[in-house]
Amino acid sequence: xxxxxxxxxxxxxxxxxxxxxxxxxxxxxxxxxxxxxxxxxxxxxxxxxxxxxxxxxxxxxxxxxxxxxxxxxxxxxxxxxxxxxxxx
Length: 88
Hints:
The chain is α+β, with helices and mostly antiparallel strands. It has one domain (23-85). Helix content is 32%, strand content 9%. A two-stranded parallel ribbon has the order 1-2.
């Protein structure tokens, strides 16, 4: 690990029903809870699909200012990235 970089792992519990309902993505409420729990993020790496966010949730994610995670980079480490393109 590079000096000055901290790695935090957040494990998300998703049932099979939730996985089907979200199309394999992180449930939005768990995604935002993880972001709020770790406010000083520089990057987020997802090993599940990017959450399907509503327009209002996307706006919250894009807002700059008081939340330092709003400037974080988001990386999806698996599969199709079509759900990420909408948020970039």
